[in-house]
Amino acid sequence: MEPIFAKYIPDTASLILPWGSARLYGDLPETAFAAPDTIPQAEAILEKPIPALPASLYRQFYENGNRANYEAPYFERRKNMLILAAAEKTEGKGRFLDLLVDYIWAVCEETTWVIPAHNTPRHGVKERLADAFDLGEGDDIHYIDLFAAATGADVAMVWHLLRDELDALTPVITRRMLGLLDRRIFHPFLHYQDSMWWKGAKGNTLNNWTPWIVSNVLTALLLCEKDKGRRQAMCAESMEILDRFIGFYKSDGGCDEGPGYWTVAGASYFDCLEILWDLSGGKIDAFGNPLVRRMGEYIADVHITGDLYVNFADASHRLSLDAALIARYGRRTGSARLNAFAKELAERRDFHATPIGTGTTPYRTFRDSIEPLPEASDSKPETRTYYDGLEVFLARDEDTGLFLAAKGGHNAESHNHNDVGNIVLFRGEHPVFIDAGVEQYTKKTFSAERYTLWTMRSRYHNLPDIAGCEQKPGGNYAASLVSAEEDSVTFRLDKAWPGEAGIRSYTRSSAMNGSVITVTDCLTLEREAPVCWYWMCAEMPEIAGDSLRFAEAGCLVQFAGGDFTLSAEPVVLEDRKLRNEWKCDTLWRVCLCCDNWTDGVMKMTVSAE
Q1: Which residues are CB-contacts of 410 (< 8 A; sequence separation ≥ 6)?
Q2: Considering the chain, what percentage of its residues have pLDDT values greater than 90?
């Protein structure tokens, strides 16, 4: 895509306001900040010790792959720090200040703000503990990861809210906060490129890390950096990085990382636009760009119903989205679609339901608490949508509640699963054929062993094994579009499997005609071989001949076209994250197998009963 900020970068010096002139949330009237709901939360925190972060927890990632044991207290510290700050700012009686200072001190005493899973020393030697004691060449402090940047934004927000109150206790604490922001955020951001892959300076592929980190760096810059030259230099650098990021987006605005990561990809990009608007007093204004609007509308398009979303890649199918963010995105980009979606979300939960301290985007979280309710809109979701860049077809039937998503794509997508040609099918809130998602992240998730994990493999998606072969990772394992029509999409899939599968030609057509969904696979092999189609389900189906019945979903599935055997086997969920998401202990994998396939058509028909 064409760069969005290139036209502003040469004039950065005249556009960026000095510290004290740029105002946080500058497009809204100045109002007194208040978060009364944080007071009982802060009172509860008063009774608890500060979570400990010993070296032994940091080392666990290197020793056994566990990252959750360190991350849980790490994030709890930051959440509690923000809650205490918000409660003190709201109440103003001083009763939360002492513990708040203890939390600030604890966060500042951490050897590094980079979590162990992201620790990438500039010297390339991983030593189980972070070496972050000075600014020498072998120091990990050169690196800014997702959560170092978020911590910097957290610290900046606390300083912004309560710097006078903290100074009244002792100016040492605010000097320490600002000093660490300089050493851990501003200095490395300005002076180091080679260790910051997410900047894209080497032409590498970028993902959610880029806008997520930049949004938090800009938050800290807006609130705390007083040097005029550094403010301008960091803003220019940020805009250049954001233009590199947008260069990887297709014109359809789709997020290949899935809806869960959209909240820190497309939505964090939007946060960057808002912060740059604040920094320039509205002179840097990219909200009218059509791509920006489409990036937002993606999240409404992949909404199935309730809190359910199409979850290709490492995304959960269940999200509790931020209605205030969606409303603001719609208001600032002029999207009636997002405005209506925000109203729909607000009908199911309080509009300002995102608690202070939640997540790792404090600029957004604090702003949500003062976002006005959106105006009414009669915009309705499209019944058919095709993302030509993302290669995702979406279809819904309003009468029966049937929802179909079909993807092409390739196996080098961000947060990739080997899932070229996969489908997801729901009826209302009831799943029929699913993408299981991803287990709790461990060291193995982002390693050379990623595709040994069952959730990443094509045989645990709604795809076949062909001659005993499953799909492999890599950009050359890809679909090509045959046709995209109003009610259907057809992808050529023969390149998605390795050569030893012996595929001569393979197309998959996914269609919704009225209230009937069909998936038609035309598969020709070079030689006779076994083929087994797998279908992942959350509900155990009833099997009768070549048919499946899903009682909870009220759907009948019929197969035709071959001498098939049909069976279902349990997939026990050992991972707590997946059990929580699917609200069950076992998924089911339907196996539709033919022992001697050479040439033919497998047709699946799904109808609502």
Answers
A1: 420, 474, 475, 476, 477, 478, 479
A2: 86
